[in-house]
Amino acid sequence: MSKFLHPKYQSLSCYVPGEQPRDKAYIKLNTNESPYPPSPEVIAAVDANAVADLRLYSDPEGKCLRQKLADRYRVAPENIYLANGSDDILSFAFMAYASDGEPVAFADITYGFYSVFAALYGSDAKILPLREDFSIDYRDYLGIDRTIFLANPNAPTGLALSVENIEKILESNPGRVVIIDEAYVDFGAESCLPLVHRYDNLLIVRTFSKSRSMAGARLGFAIASRGIIEDLNRIKFSTNPYNVNRLTLLAGAAAIDSDHYFIENCERIMKTRTKTEAALSALGFEVIPSKANFIFAKHNAMSGEAIYQALKERGILVRHFSSPRITEYNRITVGSEEEMASLLATLADILASS
Ligand code: PMP
Predict the structure, then answer these.
(1) Which helix (H) or strand (E) holds 116?
(2) 82 alpha-carbon distance from chain centroid
(3) Given ligand 1 and candidates 113, 182, 290, which is best to mutate, with the most ligand atoms within 8 Å of its CB?
(4) Which of 84, 207, 210 best tests ligand 1's pocket when mutated (most atoms within 8 Å of CB)?
(5) Which residues line ligand 1 (CB under 6 A)?
(6) What is the pLDDT of residues 303-337, one digit of tens each?
(7) 90: Cβ–Cβ under 8 A, 6 or more apart, which residues?
(8) Rounded to a whole number, what is the distance in angstroms from the first to the last CA of the chain?
């Protein structure tokens, strides 16, 4: 840290992304990427002509992709906002609705970036503990008159709230924005999309990183009332109007045009998830039933940290969190059938020799 940094940033504890090690080839099950490449249409869209056009700025309004997303999700283009990954939208939502002492609420065990943003923007954060079984009690959020951030399905647990209960939260906090982070919704949970026309305080955050196999492209989008989209644009056009690059805009449009491929991949991943959950249970793991592309599991005979280390030594990366309530667990991304077979064989070996 230099002596020039503003004091308000000196005590920040930054978000720690999952490891991206380069020392050897790992089976990477630690950052919820897709095991499958983007669709052939996406790969074809980023061609030499597209690269040659990089001399030009990208369309700051992302008109073509916004129109495609609007058609796909049956809203108007004015209900869509594009961003450099969904983290960018979450950041702007904290800035817009929860900065400088404004009240915000989120769960104690959820996406780690919420508490980082709360500290960065000086929010008055109320942390609401999950129940013992890691489920969210929606009643904790009724009428709390705070901006609310909910990951649905939640990370790293994979548990989801029903749209019916989210609607009660929206209804009882009409003066506050409720942000529903649907990063993992395509893997079997219910989307809040049908509520967007009825609640002007609902902000849905989505990403191309997981279900559309484009984590490296950095493309997120929001669906919300026109007013909320205008708020996000106000911040974007005051910071970085060209926040989504040309190649990513093209790739995103091609991904929407090849929706069948995305749907097949999600189905494959959900099938692999079901199989892996059963196999992990057979190995003695306690598995939280997941609606996401990851599985959160612990074993009573071996600590979470020891399993994480043993897997890493054998070339398999999973995500281990050290916060006390979840330190016995590991979050395992659902990879390909082959990757899961290697994981299960390796775990059987580790447990047998422990
Ligand atoms: N929300 C949740 C719940 C996540 O787990 C992630 C992935 N780390 C994100 C948002 C951000 O994803 P991205 O910025 O790649 O769209």
Answers:
(1) helix 113-120
(2) 15
(3) 113
(4) 207
(5) 85-87, 111, 151, 155, 181, 183, 207, 209, 215, 220
(6) 999 999 999 999 999 999 999 999 999 999 999 99
(7) 111, 113, 114, 117, 149, 179, 181, 205
(8) 42
